[in-house]
Design goal:
The structure is a single chain. The strands form two sheets. Strands 8-7-6-9-10-11-12 form a seven-stranded parallel beta sheet, sandwiched between helices. Strands 2-1-3-4-5 form a five-stranded parallel beta sheet, sandwiched between helices. It starts with a strand and ends in a 10-residue tail after the last helix. It has 15 helices and twelve strands. The chain has helices spanning 9-15, 21-24, 36-43, 59-64, 83-88, 101-116, 119-127, 131-141, 159-170, 185-191, 198-204, 224-229, 247-256, 283-286, 300-318, and strands at residues 2-6, 26-29, 48-51, 70-73, 92-94, 151-155, 174-178, 193-195, 207-210, 234-238, 259-264, 289-291. The protein has 328 residues and is an alpha/beta fold. The longest helix has 19 residues, at 300-318.
Length: 328
C-alpha cells in the first residue's frame, strides 16, 4: 500500500508501535503545507493520504489521484479536506475522533481554574513581592471562586465536552449544555447535566466552554451579540477552534469589564504571529486572558491512540473493508 504523508516522518516513527509497519508500506513524505501539484508529483499514485489537521487536501488533488481510497486526518480536525470532492470520487475521509478527548478536557479545566484563581496576576504578584497584599485583598473581598460555585455551560457536547463535564461534575459544578443533537435523557442523568436553549445557556452561565468544530455555521458565532448576552463577570473558554470567536469583539468585552476573563487554547489566525490583535491588547485587557498554543490535544497518549486508529483504518482498507470514523 502506498501512503502519501503530509506529516513529519519523526511522528510516524514515534507513534506507530510496530516497526514492521514500515516494511509493509511505501510511505512518501511531503511538507504539510505543500501545494497540490507538488503533492501529486511526489505521490500521485498513492492509495492513502495522511494529512496533518491543518494540511490542505483540495478537490483538485483528490480528482487527480485515481488510485486514492482514503484520506485520513492525523487528528480530529478535517476542515482543510474537500470532503465533498472525496465523496464524489468514492474516497473515504476519516479522522481520529475522540483520540484527544481526555487531554483536551484536562486543558479546558486547567484554563477554567486559571481564570477563577487569577493565576496570571497572582504569579506576577508573588514574583514582585506583593504576595501578602494580594492575599489580604482576596480575603477581604471574598471574590475567588471555586468551580463548585459556577454554572458551566457547554456549547457542543461531543466526546471532549462530555469528558470535560465529567471532571467538572466531580468538582461540584452545575452543568448545562446546548447541542444541535440533544442527548437521550438517561445520558443527561448519567452526566448530571441539563439541556438549555443556546440563548438561556449564554445568559445564565458563569463559564461558557466551547466544544464545536469549525464549520460555516459555527465560524464567528461568538460575536458581539453573543458576548453581550453573557452574564456580567462571566468567563469564556475555547479549546476547540479559534475561528469560532471574533477576536476584536472578545477583546472589547474584556476591555469594558463585561467579561471577567477568557481562556484560549486556540486563537483565530493560527499559528499566532506578533501582529495578531490578541497580542496587541492593552495591559489591563491582556491580564484577563490566559493563552496556550493549541496544545490541549497533543499529549503523547493522544497521539499513540490516534496512530492506533490510523493503522487500524489502513489495515481495513487493505482488506477492502470500510474504515472506521468516516466523515463521509
Amino acid at each position: 500500500m502506498k501512503i502519501l504523508s503530509m506529516i513529519k516522518p519523526e511522528r510516524w516513527r514515534k507513534y506507530i508501535d510496530d516497526p514492521s509497519f514500515f516494511l509493509c508500506h511505501e510511505i512518501v513524505y511531503v511538507p504539510m503545507d505543500a501545494d497540490a501539484d507538488t503533492v501529486y508529483e511526489a505521490g500521485g499514485d498513492a492509495e492513502i493520504i495522511l494529512a496533518d489537521a491543518v494540511s490542505p487536501v483540495s478537490g483538485y488533488l483528490i480528482r487527480k489521484m485515481k488510485n486514492l481510497k482514503m484520506i485520513h486526518s492525523e487528528g480530529v480536525g478535517f476542515n482543510k479536506i474537500d470532503v465533498d470532492a472525496a465523496t464524489e470520487c468514492g474516497v473515504y475521509v476519516c479522522n481520529c475522533k475522540a483520540m484527544n478527548a481526555t487531554a483536551v478536557a484536562e486543558q479546558t479545566v486547567l484554563l477554567m481554574l486559571g481564570l477563577l484563581r487569577n493565576v496570571l496576576s497572582c504569579d506576577r504578584a508573588e514574583r514582585e513581592g506583593r504576595a501578602r497584599e494580594v492575599q489580604q485583598a482576596y480575603m477581604e473581598e471574598g471574590n475567588l471562586k471555586e468551580i463548585a460555585d459556577c454554572r458551566i455551560g457547554f456549547v457542543g457536547l461531543g466526546a471532549v465536552g462530555k469528558a470535560t463535564a465529567g471532571i467538572c461534575e466531580a468538582m461540584g459544578a452545575e452543568l448545562v449544555y446546548y447541542d444541535l443533537f440533544r442527548l437521550p435523557e438517561e445520558q443527561e442523568k448519567e452526566l448530571n447535566i441539563r439541556y438549555l436553549s443556546l440563548d438561556e445557556l449564554i445568559k445564565s452561565s458563569d463559564i461558557i466552554s466551547l466544544h464545536l468544530p469549525s464549520t460555516e455555521k459555527t465560524m464567528h458565532m461568538v460575536n458581539k451579540e453573543f458576548l453581550s448576552k453573557m452574564k456580567e463577570g462571566s468567563y469564556l473558554v475555547n479549546t476547540s477552534r479559534g475561528d469560532l470567536v471574533v477576536t476584536e469583539d472578545l477583546l472589547g468585552a474584556l476591555k469594558s469589564g463585561h467579561l471577567a476573563g477568557a481562556g484560549l487554547d486556540c486563537v483565530e489566525g493560527e499559528p499566532v504571529t506578533t501582529d495578531n490583535p490578541i497580542l496587541k491588547a492593552d495591559e489591563e485587557t491582556a491580564s484577563k486572558i490566559i493563552l496556550s498554543p493549541h496544545i490541549g490535544g497533543i499529549t503523547g497518549s493522544s497521539f499513540r491512540r490516534g496512530y492506533g486508529m490510523i493503522r487500524e483504518n489502513i489495515e481495513a482498507v487493505m482488506r477492502g473493508e470500510k474504515p472506521k470514523r468516516c466523515i463521509n
